Amino acid sequence: MELNELSGYFKVLGDPNRLRIFTVLCRREYCVCELVELFHMSQPAVSQHLKKLRTHQFVKERRQGQWIYYSKNEEHPLYEYIQPILPDVGADEEKLRNVSCN
Predict the structure, then answer these.
(1) How far apart are CA 33 and CA 68, in angstroms?
(2) What are phi and psi of 86, to 5 degrees?
(3) Residue-wise pLDDT tens digits, 63-83
(4) What distance lies between CA 13 and its chain's CA centroid?
(5) pTM: predicted TM-score of the whole model, two decimal places
(6) End-to-end CA gap in the chain
(7) Is the pLDDT of residue 89 over 90?
(8) In degrees, to the nearest 5, what angle opens at C-alpha 62 toward C-alphas 75 and 91?
(9) Rounded CA separation 51/85 (Å)
(10) Is residue 5 packed enough to be buried (19+ CB in 10 Å), middle (13-18) or exposed (0-12)?
């Protein structure tokens, strides 16, 4: 892995919002509307963060009808190194149980 590529990965995860989104997606998959509700962000803002995470292959997407679900990409070359050091999502735990697009 080249220095520029590695730097790009860390730059993407250097944003606190993207890091929180990625951390939550490491627990289970979510659709954009669930992330909007969880983080109290606009849909375009969440979508832009997901786009950057997807571009750098930290997350993958799965389409189900009109919904697109996002989840961690365990095949990312840095996943095994990053996953153990991700922050605890304890503050979001209760919210995570109640989030739903339905």
Answers:
(1) 10
(2) -65, 145
(3) 999 889 999 999 999 999 998
(4) 10
(5) 0.85
(6) 42
(7) no
(8) 75
(9) 23
(10) exposed
